[in-house]
Amino acid sequence: MYLGITPSVTCNNLSRTEFSLILDKNLLVESMEELPAGPSFLCYCHLFCGIIRGAVEMVPLAADVTFLQDRLKGDHVTEIGVTFLEKLDEKKYRRKK
Q: The whole model's pTM is what?
């Protein structure tokens, strides 16, 4: 929402602990013409994974956020997988008065 991107959400897990965010439009991808030659493990869109992981921790939940598909690497869409791991201890995240 803050980045101007509206993803599609898909959930194929019966326990609803995993889902995917599919980005049809990605501003980071549109500003890149092609990946530079060199290490193929670079993923310029990992910024999104950190944003999502940080937002989920504010709830407080722990999540594993990974890239499943990347348009910069030749896929048709950008897909981010989110797996909820556990509920975090709320006492660590409360402000002390």
A: 0.73
